[in-house]
Known about the structure:
By secondary structure, the chain is mostly helical. It is 76% helix and 0% strand. The protein has one domain.
Amino acid sequence: MSPALIALQFLTRLPVRLPGMPTPEQLGRSLLWYPAVGLLLGLLLWGAHLLLGAAPALLQAAIILALWVGLSGGLHLDGLADSADAWVGGFGDRERTLAIMKDPRSGPMAVTVLVLLLLLKFAALVSLLQAGQGLLLVLLPWLARGLLPLLLWTTPYVRAGGLGQALAEQLPRHQLPWLLAGHGLAICLLFGWAGGLALVVAALVFFCLRRLMCQRLGGTTGDTAGALVELAECAVVLALALLV
């Protein structure tokens, strides 16, 4: 079974069918394809921008943001919502925080965080599109999804029995650093200083959130990994909108 198809099915809502259940080893190898899936998502967003042509920037930004959420099925937004509720409601306690993350209901903090994040993304998209920087849409999901294997490579996975545990245990640790370095180099070559800025901002978000995860939980979960993707995307698109 192709690890690329496994990554595509897990990270997107594109019509991908797998012939059966993947093995743990196949799941681990699928992590190598996460940045490529992010690149595909970015190309689809850029393609939507090109198809919309001369449509007003406000309308384009709204459609692209809706497509952005829809292509991933809100997977990472769900993780951000659960993490927001757990971080506030956990009162600094590890077990209480983990228990709240498992609750499928969303509280006021989750709703507030999601609304603010989507509002910031929308405003930043409007700014980028008005500045004629639609190509940067390619960069955003590409870079953010590259943070997922990096997180599982460098951070203990603390929820036993979850999908993330199989991913972390079977992660190809010798290949991953070279692969991520290659994607980072490609981003810098294709986007110049904007790519370098995006990498720096994403790295800062990664190290800050990873530290918070380790302090509270002793590692990461699937929900906090999803929160990392969303917050990194938001931080990068804001930095680009402000400085490009």
